[in-house]
Structure prediction request, 296 residues.
Amino acid sequence: MAGDPEQGVQGGNDVATVPDVLTPLNISADTPALRVMGVAKTFREKDPDTGRWRPVPAVAGLDLDVPRGEILGILGPNGSGKSTLIRLVATLLLADEGRVEVFGFDVERHRMLVRRLINRVSVEASFFKKLTAAENLAYATGLYGVPNRVAQVRAREILERLGLPAKKLIVPLEQLSRGQQQKVAIARALLTSPTLMLLDEPTTGLDPKSRREVQEFVLEVRATHDATIVISTHDMDEADRICDRVAIINAGQFAAIDRSDRLKARYGGHAGTMEQVFFTLIGEQLDEADQEEGGT
Ligand SMILES: Nc1ncnc2c1ncn2[C@@H]1O[C@H](COP(=O)(O)OP(=O)(O)OP(=O)(O)O)[C@@H](O)[C@H]1O
Ligand SMILES: [Mg+2]
Prediction:
């Protein structure tokens, strides 16, 4: 583990004083990319009738180890805690209980370092929409301390591979389609190495072709970069196809974490589908028509 990894980082975004992020940190290969230990988070919201604050438990007792190089899928109903988990790992929220470590670094004690090692791509991607893709990438890389020239060359290569024409780099982001904006977000996520990519529903709202491109790209990234990927999705086939393991989360707790073939054998019923696994683990029945279709 690096001695004082944050030295020079806390002072701000002055690239000259920030250690070159491309210099490998002394992280041993068997350190998990992500460890989540007993994590709980409860929000508060105001009851509109009584005006009193009430607790909204989001996640509780989460334990998870993601080895380096893995693609882990997270499936769960709306409101089950997927985005909360991702935001806790991304240092955007503080846990009430438990610990999160990214490549062995505690997310609270080493927040700035962890921010350089993780990258979050979310459906509500945080971009400055009036700026161009190139400007956004320059801003993000300044933030993460990647030397700008290196980052720009790398970003261009990645965007070319993703099929985003170079001319699209120089128009305001708001003039790009949603799928094109997702591609810029992914390019930004790949500028650091090793990296833990946190993809919160990256394919939601994309057309089937763009969805396939993003999925293929995720697989390629894992093969060609030192990347570990945590991806939430509502697409059962996507989870089945690209993830090494799938975690099913329900009401803020993991119901199961395993390879999809094992999940299907154990919870997939006669049909042996991920959809059936999902319904079994969240404690609901597929409706009758679906069950018949599934061959029961
Ligand atoms: N900022 C917040 N304030 C209050 N409650 C919140 C906040 N963010 C999330 N929650 C609550 O925490 C719970 C988990 O929400 P979360 O966004 O993690 O779900 P999700 O699994 O990502 O859902 P979806 O599939 O709809 O994206 C929900 O009950 C939600 O209402
Ligand atoms: Mg969400």
Q: What stands out?
A: The two ends are 53 Å apart (CA to CA). The pocket of magnesium ion (ligand 2) is lined by residues 82-83, 200 (CB under 6 Å). The longest helix spans residues 208-224.
